[in-house]
Request: fold
Amino acid sequence: MELSAEDKLQIIEDLNRIEQILNTDIFEERNHRHPLVRSAFIDLIICLDDLMSKVQYYCKRIDFTDDLLVTTELQERSKKRVKDVTDLINFVRHAVCHINEDNRIHRGRTKGPNKERKGAGIFFNRQFGKRGLFKEMQSKYEDDQTFAFGEHLIYLKRHIIRAFQEAKELLLENYPMIDPTRTILGSIHQALKHNPKMIEKVYEIRVKVEDSPYQQAIDKGE
Reply:
């Protein structure tokens, strides 16, 4: 399927924005009190939700279910059901973007009268590793962190970053023109094909730093 010009620009923007946010240290535990953590998370989830919809439309749905709560049999409203990571990201996107959205509260109706699911606790509660006050919100892994929305937990590494990486790989495989690096290299390749006499000159500039262990290794040819 041909990628529309509008979607191409939006996909590039989503990819770049997500990369920029994840390449910062905003989600490091030492920054847990940073006033912009929530803003960064909301920005990240909005871009990721848009990316999920586009990769589903143009390639295939990101549908892994590892470490998430599947609620297809529990939730009576179809738009609230979570069956895979794409649904989970969309669920969280609605929770962070709409103040009156009941995805933000920590209980939900099951199928059946007078039945209620207890949720995790506090909106946007965040837990690092296997530590924290609320057992329901704790990560099952020491090397990851969770964000709680309703009864759902979304992992930074195992859900958000993994979904992003899988979507990016699919999109680049099917539409390499959205990768600026590949586009530049492709243009050079085409130019060389049309003009074999073109000569590429590469200049290497080194800055010598005296008494640096790295410089000493270079001088020794290591």
